[in-house]
Amino acid sequence: MIDLSKDAGIWTVTLIRPDKANALTEDMLIKLCEIMESAGEARAVILTGHGKVFSAGADLEAARAGLAVSDLWERLSGAIAALPGLTIAALNGTLAGGAMGMALACDIRIAVPTAKFFYPVMKLGFLPQPSDPARMAALIGPSRTKLILMGGQKILAPEALAFGLIDRIIEGDDLMAAAHDLCADTVAAPAQIARGIKAMCR
């Protein structure tokens, strides 16, 4: 299930499938794509998960049926990257596999201290989605990108922060408050100024 709430220009998108580590089905991916493609009016978008895991990536059965190589992943990350408003991945726990693309496409990534980061596509016999390695390398460099994608390493939150994969570590109870705090100045500013600054940073 995907939950969408809107408040004062901030759209909060929450993955809700905690019994399956928020693994994404095809229907969930389509819903996420539709939300992000319609979020051009949002001043800010916060993407988070319910429970102790942000997302384990593709649902295992759906992945075996072809979801792991679906162009929906690229459609989703592209839609997030194209948004004119501020985008924040508020990572409530571990981020794995194809779900990494959502976070990489966001402007800012914050995470709880217990979060882990890994992307085991090579082990599973798949290529990553086309934009993911380039976005990851832009954040942490090509060698560290290969450490994750080819070395199969699980990166803990402190190392992810040191690498630049995430921007801050936030205690779990404060995660969403921190995300909203990061949105405050953008939401308060004239829309054309906030969007202009984002465009200048690209």
Question: How would you describe this structure to a colleague?
Answer:
- 43% of the residues lie in helices and 20% in strands.
- The chain has a six-stranded mixed beta sheet, sandwiched between helices. The protein has a four-stranded mixed beta sheet with strand order 4-6-8-9.
- The protein has one domain: 2-enoyl-CoA Hydratase, Chain A, domain 1 (Alpha-Beta Complex), CATH 3.90.226.
- The chain has ten helices and ten strands.
- Helix 6 (132-140) packs across helix 7.
- By secondary structure, it is of the alpha/beta class.
- It has helices at residues 26-37, 60-64, 72-82, 100-104, 121-124, 132-140, 142-149, 157-163, 175-188, 191-201; strands at 2-7, 10-15, 44-49, 53-55, 86-91, 94-96, 108-111, 116-118, 155-156, 168-169.
- Strand 1 (2-7) and strand 2 form a beta hairpin.
Overall pLDDT: 93
Q: Given the C-alpha coordinates, what overall shape results? A: globular
What's the total number of strands?
A: 10
CATH architecture: Alpha-Beta Complex
Entry summary:
The chain is of the alpha/beta class and 202 residues long. The chain contains ten helices and ten strands.
Helices and strands, with pairings:
Blueprint: E1 2-7, E2 10-15, H1 26-37, E3 44-49, E4 53-55, H2 60-64, H3 72-82, E5 86-91, E6 94-96, H4 100-104, E7 108-111, E8 116-118, H5 121-124, H6 132-140, H7 142-149, E9 155-156, H8 157-163, E10 168-169, H9 175-188, H10 191-201
Parallel strand pairs: 2-3, 3-5, 4-6, 5-7, 6-8, 7-10
Antiparallel strand pairs: 1-2, 8-9
